[in-house]
Structure formats: C-alpha cells, structure tokens
Design goal:
Layout (H helix, E strand, L loop, with lengths): L2 E6 L6 H11 L4 E7 L9 H13 L10 E6 L3 H8 L3 E6 L2 H16 L6 E5 L9 H15 L1
Parallel strand pairs: 1-2, 1-4, 2-3, 4-5
Length: 148
C-alpha cells in the first residue's frame, strides 16, 4: 500500500486543494492531509482545522470517488512527520512557475533535513490557478466588512 503526505496550512481548504487531493488519490492508496501548525497563519484549535478539512473531504464521496484520506495536524518539521508516518511520498500542487521556484527551495531544505522520499508535483487545473488560501481569506474579510 502506497501512502503519501499532502502537507499544508490549508487555511482555508478550497477547490484547488481538492483538485490536488483527487489527483494524488489517483496515484496513491492513502493520502494523509497533514495540516501544519503555523500560529502566524491560524490560531484556531487543531480540532477545528481538522474538522473543516474533513467536512470538505466528505463531499468527495458524492463524486463517486473511492478514497482513503486521513486528516492530521502536525507541528515541527515535515521531515519528522514523514519518518513518523513512514509515507512513500510527499504531494505538492503547482499553480505557476512561482510555485515551482518556491517548491524547489522547499525540497532542497527538506533534503538537507533528511527527507528521502520523493516529492510528487501535480499541476492544478487551469481553471483554479488563481485560487489561493490567502485570496480566499481576503475575500472573506471583505464580505464581513460589507455586512457591518
């Protein structure tokens, strides 16, 4: 059974994340959606973040997808989490050449930290390349401002 880790802050989870997860599930038997704890990005309790992602992933069943996904939070280094889970690969999504440049540097850091599993990159659907968690957060803040 081949497992992969799909790490990120996923704050919030959006269609682009779902797109990459579905692509990963077409290759791996199990995908661990690994929510990294970054207090600078999200101060919500871990269980709330896990529940938010689990609710989004529950909707995959309605698409007829057979899948095995586990949602976890982790703190510390991804290298330690990879060793702990004994995953076979890391999954990352790419929207643009900027993402590629960022991911390349991250991979070099991970290699320096001892991660020996391959990183598998999936290109996002072209209709979703403009979607990012920071953009979604900004829109939500603007909507809240309009309601006042």
């Amino acid at each position: 059974m081949k497992t992969a880790i799909y790490p990120g802050s996923f704050n919030p989870w959006h269609k682009g994340h779902t797109d990459i997860l579905l692509k990963a599930l077409s290759v791996f038997d199990t995908v661990y959606v690994a929510i990294g704890i970054n207090p600078e990005k999200d101060s919500r309790p871990n269980h709330e973040r896990v529940q938010e992602v689990e609710r989004a992933i529950e909707n995959l069943a309605g698409r007829g997808a057979a899948y095995s996904v586990e949602v976890h939070c982790f703190d510390g280094l991804l290298a330690d989490y990879v060793k702990e889970t004994k995953a076979h690969a890391i999954v990352r999504g790419l929207r643009s050449s900027n993402d590629f440049e960022y991911e390349k540097v991250q991979q070099y850091w991970n290699e320096d930290l001892g991660i020996v599993v391959p990183v598998v990159y999936f290109m996002s659907d072209r209709k979703l390349t403009h979607i990012s968690s920071s953009a979604v957060r900004m829109i939500e803040k603007m909507k809240i401002g309009e309601e006042k």
